[in-house]
Amino acid sequence: MKFKITVFTFLLGMVVTMAQQKKWTLEECVTYAVENNLTVEQFELDLENAKIDESDALGDMLPTLNASSTASKNVGFTIVSTSNQPVAGNQSTVSVSGNISSNITLYNGLRTFKQLQRAKLNAISNQYRLENLKDDIKLSVANGYLQILSNKEALAVSRAQYAITEQDLKRTNELVESGVVPRGDLLQIEATAAGQEQQIVNNESLVLISRINLAQLLQITDYDNFDIANESFEIPPSDILNNSAKTIFEKALEFRNDIKFSKSTVDLAEKDLEIAKGAYAPTLSGFFQYGARYSDATQPLPDGNGGVFTPGFIDQLWIFDGISYGAQLNVPIFNGWSTRNSVNRSRINLEKSKLQFEQDKLDLETTVNQRYVDVTTFAKAYYAAEKTLEARTLAYQYSKERFDVGLMNAFDFSQEQSRVDNAKADLIRTKYDYIFRLKILEFYFGIPISLE
């Protein structure tokens, strides 16, 4: 038994350790964020409510059916319900009545039908709003993920640079001890190493902060054990720039959920105007009712054979039943301009929705053009940073050769090394800036977010 407990504890510890060591990919982060975001859950509940409203609108088109029953006891003067005859004195009477009724709206300016159409449009609108929120979350997660990658790569570069400086420091110390170079050169390299150590600490802090930021987007609170997959990404191949900004914009108009949501508000406003105008029309409704009564004070009735009998409970329900049916017409004549004002408000709301829709399309066009310019700009910045790093690296190698033979002092050599460090940091920053802008532009073109 003790052996089994030990094995179970070991396996449980392995599972916990593996869970803590999980490295999240971008796809996993995006999926998890969408499935666990609280705002998404709220919008999903709004969508469920919209579907219930659709069921309500459908139910309004169906006839109603209701049943009711009343039982009462009266002492003293009363009217017998079955004979409409008065009963005086201290006599007590028991009465029972029941009825079944049904009502249906036959015509009300098609408002009931249009309410159903509006409910369906509202459900579609809520679906677009939900999908648009998911799109925003995906972009935010991708940006947070790439920020971690950028900070991790910068940290790796700073550590590699510090390792090289440590070698230079060791070699310079040997040269100082042998009297080949002055001690000032050693102090200069020690200062460079201290600065690089500080940069490593700063980069470690940036990695931690970016991990926390992404974990918060995913609503994960175990910050210490949250991390992404340790992968190195290069500029992904893409032919998105083979399309013009206008082409990307026209494609975005077809599938962007924010544009669909904006258009759905126009459709809803149009339907609201139709419903408001329907209030000018008369309302025609039909009704049907069946009822029966019983009273213990009922007088004897002829039995058809020359005699009389006092009907019992069941007999009275059959004898004193009745059916009523008919139609009711209501014609609106004057209601204090309520209908007219409602129509005018709906017309104004429709115009506002149309203007907002046009504004949203203009905003999308502006955004697409800005993203297009961003991609071209950051692409040039990235390739310029590549050339800069290549030139700085060659200059550094030349300076190192001169420094090793004593033809360059430590201060000038450290300046060359600092320029290389800055060029590497700038290359990392521009690379991930370019990748993110590229992915945003592809996303507007309908390409799912992926780093492959």
From TrEMBL:
Its main location: membrane. One of its GO terms (molecular function) is efflux transmembrane transporter activity. Pfam families: OEP (PF02321). InterPro entries: OMP_efflux, TolC-like. It comes from the Bacteria. The keyword Acetylation does not apply. It is found in: Cell outer membrane. One of its GO terms (cellular component) is efflux pump complex. Residues 1-19 form the signal peptide. The keyword Transport applies. Keywords: Cell outer membrane, Membrane, Signal, Transmembrane, Transmembrane beta strand, Transport. Belongs to the outer membrane factor (OMF) (TC 1.B.17) family. This is Transporter. It comes from Maribacter hydrothermalis.
